[in-house]
Design a protein that fits this description.
The complex is a heterodimer of chains A (219) and B (273). Chain A is α+β, with helices and mostly antiparallel strands and 219 residues long. Chain A has two domains: 145 residues, Beta-Lactamase; 47 residues. In chain A, 59% of the residues lie in helices and 17% in strands. A five-stranded antiparallel beta sheet of chain A has the order 2-1-5-4-3, with helices on both faces. In chain A, a hairpin with a 2-residue loop joins strand 4 and strand 5. With 273 residues, chain B is an all-alpha fold. Chain B has a domain of 158 residues: Methane Monooxygenase Hydroxylase, Chain G, domain 1. The longest helix of chain B has 118 residues. The chains are: A alpha+beta (219), B mainly alpha (273). At the A-B interface, strand 3 and helix 4 of A face helix 5 of B. Chain A: Involved in the targeting and/or fusion of transport vesicles to their target membrane. Chain A: InterPro entries: Longin-like_dom_sf (IPR011012), Longin_dom (IPR010908), Synaptobrevin-like (IPR001388), Synaptobrevin-like_transport (IPR051097), V_SNARE_CC (IPR042855).
């Protein structure tokens, strides 16, 4: 909700006002202007039903606003301070000799803009902005946690797959070693067969040359 | 395989022992820096109160005690930091521990600088402002003028003076109530921010735990891949040797077939003749 009504006055004379809703805030505001005691600079808050009227008087100029009770005090009084500075900067010494509603035509738009700003924009208050930023950081970190958990799941799958690959490569190495052994033994057998065949041929040739199986002529 | 495991177990145990001994000075330094940070924040808050209506003799005394407390904390933490630094130089520890200690040293210097700044500001304000004495509520000019002109004042003037004084007190009470309400609201907002920061801190801790666990997983993946690479290289070597032997087998087989062919041819010729 935020700030609903704003008014700038000198003493009990209203110089500018703006109302965001159709309420009796204007009448109540005038009563408050009449009843504020003393002439000193002051900060006071009056509550009525669900709304609170915050009043700030500085250097004879009174700034008043009506806000929802959930708006607290920090933002409405920051709003009053801001309006006071803008008003003094815009009109200067003319404030003390102005007619009732003399600045209402142009300054009511400023009041409207600032009411909107202080009611809606989180940047109006540093603490609220920090709160918003911390919420964003928290959301981003929660997303990060989700992403890291997802990454963890995929890493677990990858661990399983690499473990399988490791097992397969160990098996591959074992079979490769067995295959090499098999081929080597086959080579050995072929070599032995070759030697045996050569010996047999030599024996047959000698048998023919020496005229007999017992080789009688050669010895 | 089992021999490699035995070798892996021994450095792990010694590393854990080193880590346990090493952890205490670093954690002590971190705790000390945190305490100094908290004390410096308190000191800064007290310094910000100087020059305001709450500036009293009690506040000055509290400021002095806080300053002494911070000095003591700085001395203790400096000794612990020196001890941690000596351990870094003598024992050959891993780089991450040195980086952590260097970071702690930098944090310590930052806190010291902040404290010196706050101390200088405190000295300036203590000189510029005098403490607010609550016993003498009335200004001295009132007292002097009242003493001088007391007997000459009419009851009407005295009543006006009392009324003005009462309004002044009422005004101050209103201002105090207003400021306290603003401060309470700001404190509530800051409490909420602190709570959110605490939650973010928890999230960061959880994230650190998760990332650390996943680091272990990635190490497992790395070791699996390295083992697979080694096994594949050995298998490739074995297959290469097998290929060479098989080429030799083919040569021997051809030779045997040729010899059998020649023998068969000779036998046929002899039988034909």
């Amino acid at each position: 909700m935020g700030i609903l009504y704003a008014l700038v006055g000198r003493g009990s004379v209203v110089l500018a006002e703006f109302s965001g809703t159709t309420t009796n805030a204007s009448a109540i505001a005038r009563q408050i202007l009449e009843k504020i005691p003393g002439n000193n600079d002051t900060h006071v808050s009056y509550s009525q039903d669900r709304y609170i009227f915050h009043v700030k008087r500085t250097d004879g100029l009174t700034v008043l606003c009506m806000a929802d009770d959930t708006a607290g005090r920090r933002i409405p009084f920051a709003f009053l301070e801001d309006i006071h500075q803008k008003f003094v900067r815009t009109y200067g010494r003319a404030v003390h000799s102005a007619q009732p509603y003399g600045m209402n035509e142009e300054f009511s738009r400023v009041l409207s803009q600032q009411m909107e700003y202080y009611s809606s924009d989180p940047n109006a208050d540093r603490i609220n902005r920090l709160k918003g930023e911390m919420s964003q950081v928290r959301n981003v970190m929660i997303e990060n946690i989700d992403k890291v958990l997802d990454r963890g799941d995929r890493l677990e799958l990858l661990v399983d797959k690499t473990a399988n690959m490791q097992g397969n490569t160990f098996r591959f190495r074992k079979q490769a070693r067995r295959f090499r052994s098999t081929v080597w033994w086959r080579n050995v057998k072929l070599t032995i067969a070759l030697i045996v065949v050569l010996l047999v041929i030599v024996y047959v040739v000698l048998a023919f040359v020496c005229h007999g199986p017992a080789l009688p002529s050669c010895f | 395989m089992s021999f490699q495991d035995i070798e892996a177990g021994r450095p792990f145990g010694s590393r854990r022992g080193l880590m346990n001994g090493k952890q205490d000075p670093t954690q002590a330094v971190a705790a000390g820096i945190f305490q100094i940070n908290t004390a410096v924040s308190t000191f800064q808050r007290l310094v910000n109160t100087l020059g305001t209506p709450k500036d009293t003799l009690d506040l000055r005394e509290k400021l002095h005690k806080t300053r002494l407390h911070i000095g003591q904390l700085v001395k203790d933490t400096s000794a612990k930091l020196k001890q941690a630094s000596d351990i870094d130089h003598h024992a050959e520890v891993n780089a991450s521990k040195k980086i952590a200690d260097a970071k702690l040293a930098k944090d310590f210097q930052a806190v010291l600088k902040e404290f010196q700044k706050a101390q200088r500001l405190a000295a300036e304000r203590e000189t510029a402002y005098t403490p607010f004495v609550p016993q003498a509520v009335l200004p001295s000019s009132y007292t002097a003028s009242e003493v001088d002109v007391g007997s000459d004042k009419s009851p009407e003037q005295r009543a006006l003076l009392v009324e003005s004084r009462r309004q002044e007190v009422l005004f101050l009470d209103n201002e105090i109530a207003f400021n306290e309400a603003i401060i309470e609201e700001r404190e509530q907002g800051i409490q909420e921010i602190q709570q959110q920061i605490g939650e973010v801190n928890e999230i960061f801790k959880d994230l650190a735990v998760l990332v650390h666990e996943q680091g272990a997983m990635i190490d497992d993946i790395g070791s699996n891949i390295e083992n697979s690479h080694a096994a594949t290289a050995q298998a490739k070597s074995q297959l290469s040797k097998a290929s060479k032997t098989q080429r030799s087998n083919s040569s021997l087989t051809c030779l045997l077939l040729v010899i059998f062919g020649i023998v068969l041819l000779i036998v046929i010729i002899v039988l034909a003749a």
